[in-house]
Automatic annotation (TrEMBL):
The keyword Transcription regulation applies. SMART domains: HTH_LACI. It comes from the Bacteria. This is Substrate-binding domain-containing protein. The keyword Endoplasmic reticulum does not apply.
């Protein structure tokens, strides 16, 4: 089989990927002259269309596919709500695949790809080799909460600036002993922790290693029981659910939040506003993330060429009680 892709065939024939797909399938309005151009390009490049490639025909399914690592928790629920609202406006159905505890993920994803017009993939859910295979087949694809993969578009939230602002705010409280709860993956969380590490280093503060844990209240509780034994000044958490778990662990250990230890999260889920103490966090536009992904995918399905670009949505630092009150310094004597 040749290493040529459907993109190269389209470029050589001077037509769109959708036109190549229709010509290969023998369906849709493709003129004889155009079909011949595609045939010649296929022969010249020795292109062997995959099952995925020949299944792609514009508007064939009126369905989008979404691949998430998990569907539990408020984060994914909010993102999905935003996605489905836009998909409904566009008259498209949504097929959702969770990879959690699922065997044979690559084969399952490839099967899903033959039943939808385009695919949204969250973070690092799928290996890069599989993403490349899917993109090279001509499948319209949008990456969510990560940078674009070649042959795709992407949308994510801003991480570094807000993470730095949060770290600076905590340093202003006088905190010097930091702990980080939540894994150091290659996506959003990695960008946050990298910015935090840079900021702490700039202030001469020892940079801790993030402690791996599931992004759940239970995961945060378990991580908190370990981290809090060393009595840090503050525990910065990868998301709000982890932070809520750390607060529970602090209570269990007889520690007051924020009197004995400050705790911060990320996302600003509803529970963050109503927890006691209310959680200092960074607000992500979760529904808009989903909505933006739906619009981007619709543009690709309609024939727009992928540009490997990443759209970044703004985030916002939200200061609440869990990080404590700023010290009030008396005026200097004259």
């Amino acid at each position: 089989m040749s290493d040529s892709t459907i993109y190269e065939v389209a470029r050589l024939a001077g037509v769109s990927i959708a036109t190549v797909s229709r010509a290969l399938r023998g369906t849709g309005p493709v003129s004889a002259a155009t079909r011949e151009k595609v045939r010649q390009a296929v022969e010249q490049l020795r292109f062997t269309p995959s099952r995925l490639g020949v299944s792609l025909a514009e508007g064939r399914h009126a369905a989008d596919g979404i691949v998430f690592p998990d569907l539990s928790g408020p984060y994914f629920g909010e993102v999905l709500l935003g996605y489905e609202e836009v998909a409904a406006e566009l008259g498209r159905s949504v097929l959702i695949l969770s990879t959690r505890d699922r065997a044979g993920v690559p084969e399952t994803v490839k099967d899903l790809a033959t039943r939808v017009d385009g695919l949204v993939v969250f973070g690092q859910t799928l290996p890069d080799a599989l993403l490349t295979e899917l993109a090279d087949s001509g499948l319209p694809m949008v990456m969510l909460a990560r940078e674009a993969h070649p042959g795709t578009e992407a949308v994510r939230s801003e991480n570094a600036g807000s993470a730095e602002a949060l770290a600076v705010h905590l340093i202003a409280h006088g905190h010097r002993r930091f702990a980080l709860a939540g894994g150091h993956d290659e996506g959003d969380v990695s960008q946050r922790w990298t910015a935090v590490a840079r900021t702490l280093g700039d202030h001469g503060i020892t940079v801790p290693r993030p402690v791996e844990c599931p992004y759940t209240v239970e995961g945060g509780h378990e991580a908190g029981l370990t981290l809090l034994r060393d009595r840090p000044d503050v525990v910065m958490c990868a998301d709000d659910q982890v932070a809520l778990g750390v607060i529970l662990a602090a209570e269990e250990l007889g520690l007051n939040v924020p009197g004995d230890v400050a705790v911060t999260g990320w996302d600003d889920i509803m529970a963050a506003r109503h927890s006691r103490p209310a959680l200092t966090t960074v607000r992500q536009p979760l529904r808009e993330l989903g909505a933006a992904a739906a619009r981007l995918l619709d543009e690709l399905i309609a024939g727009a060429e992928p540009t490997d670009s990443t759209r970044v949505l703004a985030t916002e630092l939200v200061i609440r009680a869990s990080c404590g009150a700023h010290q009030v310094h008396p005026p200097e004597e004259q």
